[in-house]
Amino acid sequence: MAKFDNNFVDELRMRLSIVDVVGRRVPLVKKGQNYWGCCPFHNEKTPSFSVSEDKGFYHCFGCGAHGDIISFVMNTEHLEYPNAIRELADLAGMKMPEYKPKSVARQNLENSYFDICERATREYQKLLFEPVGRDALDYVRRRGFSDEMIKKYRLGYAPKNNLVASKFSDIKQNDLLTTGLVRRGDYGLYDFFRNKLMFPIFNPRGQVIAFSGRSLDGSDPKYINTTDTELFHKRQTIFGFNFARDDIYKKNRSIVVEGQIDAIQMQVHGFGETVAPLGTALTEDHIAILCKSNRNIVFCFDGDGAGQKAAVRAASIVLPFVRDNSDVRFAFVTGGKDPDEVLKTGGVGAMEKIINDAVGLVDFLWKSVNENYLVSTPGGRVQAEKFLENELKKIQDKKLQYEIEQEYKKREFQQWRSWKKTDAPKIKLPDTDTVTKNTLIYIVNKFPNLASQYADFLATLNISFDMDAPDLGWSDAAAEKFIVSLKLQRYRATLEQELRTKMQGMINGENYTNEELSDIKKKIADVNQKLEKLLYME
């Protein structure tokens, strides 16, 4: 049977989480590292159907059903392979490729690609320890790289001459060009990497697919990477992921830093779950890869303006991947340092503190809007609210989206609207009794939308709402009815006090008229009528 291009199918598996695909049909609960539910392929009451997000497979311990996202869709939707691929592509937002078998020439090209990259890696490794690579070796040792680290990460040196173009003459020119290691000039092929410290870039299986070269003479750019090829795409490649996969699984999280040296130093200093984007800003594809291994992520960026912007962008990208069991946090390295320097000057303990002090996603977004919008003004608050609203729409779990929205509404009410009375009423109102106070605290915490709607009235009560109260189990309508009733009662109290004051004033000879008293009595009657109607409202 003909097959789709393996690259497309692999990308499909990369972009889609099996937990999300299976979860559309089977309610899943996370227990340990896997998710569990009742098998859709046979009747059972006790869940024996296990889904591994890290491995991308499901397995039923009852009937033995086993497979990946493709087989799951084929078996549950009763679809042939091409139609299952089409449905998954629609789910992932990917354009379907032409349906054709993989040619022998294509397979040979892929094999040649990996062979050339591996051969180049060995050549670069060898040259690093020869006299021609002395400057590069001195540099990495100054950066704290031991020979063991150099060997593990397969660092090397690309010389000034055309090593690959000349030494790989036994390979077809088109095959060399495909790898991006060489380019064609007026006088033939020439090496893309020259006089560079070389960092091999691995795919998740540990195969070298590209390189990152660091300048050694101070020239810019400091780093250059292999340009995108058929088998290497920067947007879909995470530096250090092949080394970090096991630690991400064991430590139940990943740490994302900004550069490859930072990632390497973090890994060798006990933070094996650390990775870095490669020569480009963080992308949706990077997050999709990480979330397939684990949805708990700590983003560790520089504390400067650029780092803050990168963090806001990361938060925006990660939101569609967040679930109710995700733990996404943001840590910042301040003082003009990076993780590499922190580890050298402060040790592992200093880095651990930075990671442990990371701010959660909800708090980070809240902090960001307060720093980037002038929330002391109505216009600034509206802009901030719109930003939060648009960001939260990205969350696919609507229940989680709703809960975070309610949390932000509560914070907006408590922090953006002044709880301190600015225009104190001229007539002293009675203190709020304990039962009423606890009821209002419950309403404000449970129904932030009502708190925002009646903010002006609630602000006159001199109540601290930053505390807990017993859950009354009320509906939204019952809560609003209580607030309106209390508002009417307190308004009636002010009218009655005003009436008593003016009646006493008339006795004392003050210049009040009967019309004024009648007007107040009419207002009191209107309030009583509204309260009576409210009493019988459902």
Which value, in Å, is the CA radius of gyration? 32 Å
Strand arrangement, major sheet: 12-14-13-15-16-17
Shape: elongated
Q: Please tally the β strands and state the result.
A: 17
Alpha-beta classification: alpha+beta
**CATH architectural group of the largest domain:** 3-Layer(aba) Sandwich
Mean pLDDT: 87
Domain unit count: 4
At CATH level 3, the topology of the largest domain is: Dna Topoisomerase Vi A Subunit, Chain: A, domain 2
Instruction: Describe the sheet with the most strands.
Output: 6 strands, mixed
Give the helix proportion (percent range): 40-55%
**Which band does the percent of strand residues land in?**
5-15%
Distance N terminus to C terminus? 65 Å
Q: CATH top level of the largest domain? A: Alpha Beta
Ranges where pLDDT stays below 50 over 5 or more residues in a row are: 420-430
Per DSSP, the total helix count is 23
Give a topology summary.
Elements: H1 6-15, H2 18-23, E1 29-31, E2 34-37, E3 49-52, E4 57-60, E5 66-67, H3 69-77, H4 81-92, H5 104-128, H6 134-142, H7 147-152, E6 156-158, H8 163-167, H9 173-179, E7 182-185, E8 188-191, E9 196-202, E10 208-215, E11 223-225, E12 238-239, H10 241-251, E13 254-256, H11 260-268, E14 274-277, H12 284-293, E15 297-302, H13 305-318, E16 328-333, H14 339-345, H15 347-356, E17 359-360, H16 361-372, H17 378-392, H18 398-416, H19 434-446, H20 448-453, H21 455-458, H22 476-507, H23 514-535
Parallel strand pairs: 13-14, 13-15, 15-16
Antiparallel strand pairs: 1-2, 2-3, 3-4, 4-5, 6-9, 7-8, 9-10, 10-11, 12-14, 16-17
Helix pairs in contact: 3-4, 5-9, 14-15, 17-18, 22-23
